[in-house]
Protein backbone atom coordinates (compact mmCIF):
# COMPACT_ATOMS: atom_id res chain seq x y z
CA UNK A 1 0.00 0.00 0.00
CA UNK A 2 1.36 3.40 -1.00
CA UNK A 3 1.21 5.63 2.08
CA UNK A 4 1.84 8.68 -0.12
CA UNK A 5 -1.66 8.24 -1.57
CA UNK A 6 -3.22 8.83 1.85
CA UNK A 7 -0.62 10.99 3.64
CA UNK A 8 1.41 13.92 2.40
CA UNK A 9 4.37 12.80 4.50
CA UNK A 10 5.62 9.25 4.94
CA UNK A 11 6.33 10.01 8.62
CA UNK A 12 2.83 11.28 9.46
CA UNK A 13 1.31 7.78 10.16
CA UNK A 14 4.17 7.02 12.57
CA UNK A 15 3.73 10.36 14.29
CA UNK A 16 0.03 9.68 14.78
CA UNK A 17 0.74 6.18 16.14
CA UNK A 18 3.57 7.33 18.41
CA UNK A 19 1.37 8.16 21.47
CA UNK A 20 -0.15 4.66 21.33
CA UNK A 21 3.27 3.03 21.03
CA UNK A 22 4.59 5.06 23.96
CA UNK A 23 1.64 4.10 26.19
CA UNK A 24 1.97 0.41 25.28
CA UNK A 25 5.71 0.48 25.88
CA UNK A 26 5.52 2.24 29.24
CA UNK A 27 2.44 0.57 30.71
CA UNK A 28 2.42 -2.89 29.08
CA UNK A 29 5.63 -4.12 27.50
CA UNK A 30 8.11 -2.65 29.98
CA UNK A 31 6.25 -3.93 33.11
CA UNK A 32 5.90 -7.35 31.45
CA UNK A 33 9.64 -7.48 30.72
CA UNK A 34 10.46 -6.34 34.27
CA UNK A 35 8.22 -9.07 35.70
CA UNK A 36 10.14 -11.73 33.76
CA UNK A 37 13.45 -10.30 34.99
CA UNK A 38 12.26 -9.94 38.60
CA UNK A 39 11.19 -13.59 38.68
CA UNK A 40 14.90 -14.51 38.52
CA UNK A 41 15.77 -12.63 41.70
CA UNK A 42 15.22 -12.92 45.43
CA UNK A 43 14.20 -9.46 46.61
CA UNK A 44 14.70 -8.23 50.18
CA UNK A 45 12.06 -6.37 52.17
CA UNK A 46 10.78 -3.32 50.21
CA UNK A 47 13.29 -4.03 47.47
CA UNK A 48 16.31 -2.87 49.50
CA UNK A 49 18.50 -5.49 47.79
CA UNK A 50 18.24 -8.13 45.06
CA UNK A 51 20.06 -11.41 44.64
CA UNK A 52 20.11 -13.29 41.34
CA UNK A 53 18.91 -16.87 41.90
CA UNK A 54 18.07 -17.97 38.37
CA UNK A 55 15.21 -20.48 38.31
CA UNK A 56 15.17 -21.09 42.08
CA UNK A 57 11.87 -19.23 42.48
CA UNK A 58 10.24 -21.50 39.91
CA UNK A 59 11.76 -24.57 41.55
CA UNK A 60 10.31 -23.58 44.91
CA UNK A 61 6.89 -22.95 43.40
CA UNK A 62 6.71 -26.36 41.70
CA UNK A 63 8.14 -28.35 44.62
CA UNK A 64 6.49 -26.71 47.64
CA UNK A 65 3.31 -28.50 48.75
CA UNK A 66 1.68 -25.15 49.54
CA UNK A 67 2.00 -24.00 45.95
CA UNK A 68 0.86 -27.37 44.62
CA UNK A 69 -2.34 -26.93 46.60
CA UNK A 70 -2.75 -23.43 45.16
CA UNK A 71 -2.38 -24.81 41.62
CA UNK A 72 -4.95 -27.50 42.41
CA UNK A 73 -7.36 -24.92 43.86
CA UNK A 74 -6.96 -22.76 40.75
CA UNK A 75 -7.52 -25.72 38.42
CA UNK A 76 -10.68 -26.86 40.23
CA UNK A 77 -12.06 -23.33 40.43
CA UNK A 78 -11.32 -22.56 36.77
CA UNK A 79 -12.73 -25.86 35.49
CA UNK A 80 -16.08 -25.50 37.21
CA UNK A 81 -16.39 -21.77 36.56
CA UNK A 82 -15.77 -22.20 32.84
CA UNK A 83 -17.98 -25.28 32.53
CA UNK A 84 -20.92 -23.92 34.50
CA UNK A 85 -20.72 -20.37 33.15
CA UNK A 86 -20.85 -21.55 29.57
CA UNK A 87 -23.42 -24.31 30.10
CA UNK A 88 -25.79 -22.12 32.10
CA UNK A 89 -25.21 -19.19 29.75
CA UNK A 90 -26.04 -21.30 26.68
CA UNK A 91 -29.14 -22.79 28.30
CA UNK A 92 -30.47 -19.40 29.38
CA UNK A 93 -29.68 -17.94 25.96
CA UNK A 94 -31.72 -20.62 24.21
CA UNK A 95 -34.65 -19.88 26.53
CA UNK A 96 -34.29 -16.10 26.22
CA UNK A 97 -34.17 -16.38 22.43
CA UNK A 98 -37.69 -17.81 22.28
CA UNK A 99 -40.46 -15.62 20.92
CA UNK A 100 -42.25 -14.89 24.17
CA UNK A 101 -43.76 -11.76 25.63
CA UNK A 102 -41.35 -9.70 27.71
CA UNK A 103 -38.22 -11.43 26.42
CA UNK A 104 -36.39 -8.07 26.36
CA UNK A 105 -36.94 -7.74 30.11
CA UNK A 106 -35.77 -11.30 30.72
CA UNK A 107 -32.61 -10.69 28.72
CA UNK A 108 -31.90 -7.54 30.69
CA UNK A 109 -32.28 -9.41 33.98
CA UNK A 110 -29.91 -12.11 32.76
CA UNK A 111 -27.26 -9.64 31.65
CA UNK A 112 -27.26 -7.07 34.48
CA UNK A 113 -25.07 -9.07 36.95
CA UNK A 114 -22.19 -8.76 34.49
CA UNK A 115 -22.43 -4.96 34.79
CA UNK A 116 -21.54 -5.18 38.49
CA UNK A 117 -17.91 -4.96 39.48
CA UNK A 118 -16.43 -8.10 41.11
CA UNK A 119 -16.00 -6.14 44.36
CA UNK A 120 -19.71 -5.25 44.49
CA UNK A 121 -20.70 -8.83 43.68
CA UNK A 122 -18.39 -10.10 46.44
CA UNK A 123 -19.91 -7.73 49.02
CA UNK A 124 -23.46 -8.76 48.02
CA UNK A 125 -22.72 -12.45 48.52
CA UNK A 126 -20.76 -11.78 51.70
CA UNK A 127 -23.94 -10.40 53.24
CA UNK A 128 -26.17 -13.07 51.71
CA UNK A 129 -24.08 -16.01 52.96
CA UNK A 130 -23.00 -14.63 56.32
CA UNK A 131 -23.22 -17.54 58.75
CA UNK A 132 -24.83 -15.53 61.56
CA UNK A 133 -26.93 -12.86 59.86
CA UNK A 134 -27.15 -13.86 56.19
CA UNK A 135 -30.54 -14.23 54.55
CA UNK A 136 -29.53 -17.56 52.96
CA UNK A 137 -28.83 -19.26 56.30
CA UNK A 138 -31.96 -17.70 57.77
CA UNK A 139 -34.15 -19.21 55.04
CA UNK A 140 -32.38 -22.57 55.29
CA UNK A 141 -32.81 -22.67 59.06
CA UNK A 142 -36.51 -21.82 58.79
CA UNK A 143 -37.29 -24.28 55.99
CA UNK A 144 -34.79 -27.12 56.50
CA UNK A 145 -33.45 -26.54 59.98
CA UNK A 146 -29.83 -26.26 58.81
CA UNK A 147 -27.28 -23.44 58.96
CA UNK A 148 -24.20 -24.31 56.86
CA UNK A 149 -20.80 -22.83 57.63
CA UNK A 150 -20.26 -21.39 54.17
CA UNK A 151 -17.00 -19.58 54.84
CA UNK A 152 -15.33 -21.93 57.33
CA UNK A 153 -15.97 -25.25 55.57
CA UNK A 154 -13.34 -25.85 52.83
CA UNK A 155 -15.73 -27.53 50.38
CA UNK A 156 -18.56 -25.05 50.92
CA UNK A 157 -16.20 -22.08 50.69
CA UNK A 158 -14.87 -23.24 47.31
CA UNK A 159 -18.41 -24.00 46.13
CA UNK A 160 -19.50 -20.49 47.15
CA UNK A 161 -16.59 -18.91 45.26
CA UNK A 162 -17.50 -20.92 42.15
CA UNK A 163 -21.17 -19.97 42.48
CA UNK A 164 -20.39 -16.26 42.80
CA UNK A 165 -17.99 -16.30 39.85
CA UNK A 166 -20.52 -18.16 37.68
CA UNK A 167 -23.35 -15.82 38.67
CA UNK A 168 -21.21 -12.83 37.82
CA UNK A 169 -20.10 -14.08 34.40
CA UNK A 170 -23.19 -15.81 33.03
CA UNK A 171 -24.48 -12.53 31.59
CA UNK A 172 -21.33 -12.17 29.48
CA UNK A 173 -21.95 -15.56 27.88
CA UNK A 174 -25.64 -14.81 27.41
CA UNK A 175 -24.85 -11.68 25.37
CA UNK A 176 -22.63 -13.56 22.94
CA UNK A 177 -24.73 -16.70 22.71
CA UNK A 178 -27.92 -14.73 22.01
CA UNK A 179 -26.08 -12.86 19.26
CA UNK A 180 -24.92 -16.19 17.84
CA UNK A 181 -28.40 -17.74 18.02
CA UNK A 182 -29.94 -14.79 16.22
CA UNK A 183 -27.49 -15.18 13.34
CA UNK A 184 -27.97 -18.90 12.75
CA UNK A 185 -29.22 -19.85 9.24
CA UNK A 186 -32.97 -20.19 9.68
CA UNK A 187 -33.44 -22.40 6.62
CA UNK A 188 -31.30 -25.15 8.16
CA UNK A 189 -33.37 -25.20 11.35
CA UNK A 190 -36.62 -25.12 9.36
CA UNK A 191 -35.47 -28.04 7.23
CA UNK A 192 -34.69 -30.06 10.36
CA UNK A 193 -38.12 -29.22 11.77
CA UNK A 194 -39.81 -30.36 8.57
CA UNK A 195 -37.79 -33.59 8.67
CA UNK A 196 -39.26 -34.31 12.12
CA UNK A 197 -36.22 -33.59 14.31
CA UNK A 198 -37.01 -33.15 17.99
CA UNK A 199 -36.02 -29.91 19.80
CA UNK A 200 -33.13 -31.74 21.46
CA UNK A 201 -31.92 -33.15 18.12
CA UNK A 202 -32.13 -29.71 16.48
CA UNK A 203 -30.11 -28.22 19.32
CA UNK A 204 -27.43 -30.92 19.59
CA UNK A 205 -27.03 -31.72 15.88
CA UNK A 206 -27.48 -28.24 14.37
CA UNK A 207 -27.55 -25.33 16.81
CA UNK A 208 -24.62 -26.31 19.01
CA UNK A 209 -22.24 -27.19 16.13
CA UNK A 210 -23.09 -23.92 14.36
CA UNK A 211 -22.22 -22.08 17.57
CA UNK A 212 -18.77 -23.69 17.54
CA UNK A 213 -16.77 -20.53 16.75
CA UNK A 214 -18.63 -18.60 19.45
CA UNK A 215 -18.09 -21.41 21.95
CA UNK A 216 -14.35 -21.49 21.25
CA UNK A 217 -14.11 -17.74 21.76
CA UNK A 218 -16.08 -17.91 25.02
CA UNK A 219 -14.01 -20.85 26.24
CA UNK A 220 -10.88 -18.71 25.98
CA UNK A 221 -12.49 -15.62 27.53
CA UNK A 222 -14.04 -17.58 30.41
CA UNK A 223 -10.69 -19.23 31.17
CA UNK A 224 -9.00 -15.84 31.32
CA UNK A 225 -11.83 -14.58 33.53
CA UNK A 226 -11.43 -17.52 35.92
CA UNK A 227 -7.68 -16.96 36.15
CA UNK A 228 -7.61 -13.19 36.59
CA UNK A 229 -10.97 -11.87 37.84
CA UNK A 230 -11.42 -14.02 40.93
CA UNK A 231 -9.24 -11.84 43.16
CA UNK A 232 -12.07 -9.71 44.57
CA UNK A 233 -14.22 -12.76 45.36
CA UNK A 234 -11.44 -14.45 47.30
CA UNK A 235 -10.35 -11.27 49.07
CA UNK A 236 -13.84 -10.32 50.22
CA UNK A 237 -15.31 -13.74 50.97
CA UNK A 238 -12.64 -16.16 52.18
CA UNK A 239 -9.19 -14.50 52.26
CA UNK A 240 -7.86 -17.76 50.83
CA UNK A 241 -9.14 -19.82 53.76
CA UNK A 242 -10.05 -21.93 55.49
CA UNK A 243 -6.68 -23.69 55.69
CA UNK A 244 -5.62 -22.35 52.29
CA UNK A 245 -8.52 -24.23 50.66
CA UNK A 246 -9.63 -21.30 48.49
CA UNK A 247 -6.29 -19.62 47.91
CA UNK A 248 -6.08 -19.15 44.13
CA UNK A 249 -2.98 -18.26 42.16
CA UNK A 250 -4.09 -14.70 41.39
CA UNK A 251 -4.74 -14.07 45.09
CA UNK A 252 -1.50 -15.68 46.24
CA UNK A 253 0.45 -13.42 43.88
CA UNK A 254 -0.97 -10.47 45.80
CA UNK A 255 -0.20 -12.05 49.18
CA UNK A 256 3.38 -12.97 48.30
CA UNK A 257 4.03 -9.59 46.72
CA UNK A 258 2.29 -7.15 49.06
CA UNK A 259 1.80 -8.98 52.36
CA UNK A 260 4.87 -11.19 52.63
CA UNK A 261 7.13 -9.06 50.37
CA UNK A 262 8.31 -12.10 48.41
CA UNK A 263 8.49 -10.07 45.23
CA UNK A 264 10.57 -12.55 43.25
CA UNK A 265 8.19 -15.41 44.01
CA UNK A 266 5.20 -13.24 43.16
CA UNK A 267 6.77 -12.31 39.83
CA UNK A 268 7.49 -15.97 39.06
CA UNK A 269 3.86 -16.86 39.74
CA UNK A 270 2.75 -14.03 37.46
CA UNK A 271 4.93 -15.43 34.69
CA UNK A 272 3.47 -18.92 35.19
CA UNK A 273 -0.06 -17.54 35.03
CA UNK A 274 0.80 -15.55 31.91
CA UNK A 275 2.33 -18.56 30.16
CA UNK A 276 -0.65 -20.75 31.12
CA UNK A 277 -3.10 -18.33 29.52
CA UNK A 278 -0.97 -18.04 26.37
CA UNK A 279 -0.66 -21.82 26.02
CA UNK A 280 -4.38 -22.40 26.56
CA UNK A 281 -5.23 -19.72 24.02
CA UNK A 282 -2.91 -21.22 21.40
CA UNK A 283 -4.31 -24.71 21.99
CA UNK A 284 -7.89 -23.54 21.65
CA UNK A 285 -7.19 -21.49 18.53
CA UNK A 286 -5.19 -24.23 16.81
CA UNK A 287 -7.13 -27.38 17.70
CA UNK A 288 -10.53 -25.87 18.39
CA UNK A 289 -10.71 -24.01 15.10
CA UNK A 290 -10.47 -27.24 13.12
CA UNK A 291 -13.56 -28.54 14.89
CA UNK A 292 -15.60 -25.38 14.49
CA UNK A 293 -18.62 -25.43 12.18
CA UNK A 294 -19.37 -22.24 10.31
CA UNK A 295 -22.90 -22.00 9.06
CA UNK A 296 -23.99 -19.77 6.26
Question: Care to describe what's here?
Answer:
The structure is a single chain. The mean pLDDT is 87. The chain has one domain (64-289): MetI-like (MetI-like fold), CATH 1.10.3720. The longest helix is centred in the first third of the chain and has 32 residues, at 65-96. The protein has helices at 12-38, 56-63, 65-96, 103-115, 118-128, 135-143, 154-182, 186-194, 199-210, 212-228, 231-237, 249-259, 263-289, and strands at 41-43, 50-52. It has 296 residues and is an all-alpha fold. It has 13 helices and 2 strands. It is 72% helix and 2% strand. Helix 1 packs across helix 13, helix 2 crosses helix 13 and helix 12 runs antiparallel to helix 13 (263-289). Strands 1-2 form a two-stranded antiparallel ribbon.
What class, by secondary structure content? mainly alpha
The succession of helices and strands, N to C, reads HEEHHHHHHHHHHHH
Spatial order of the strands forming the largest sheet: 1-2
Question: CATH-wise, what's the superfamily?
Answer: MetI-like
The CATH class is identified as: Mainly Alpha
Radius of gyration: 24 Å
| CATH architecture assignment | Orthogonal Bundle
What's the N-to-C terminus distance?
32 Å
What keywords describe this structure?
single chain, 296 residues, mainly alpha, MetI-like fold, two-stranded antiparallel sheet, 2 strands, globular
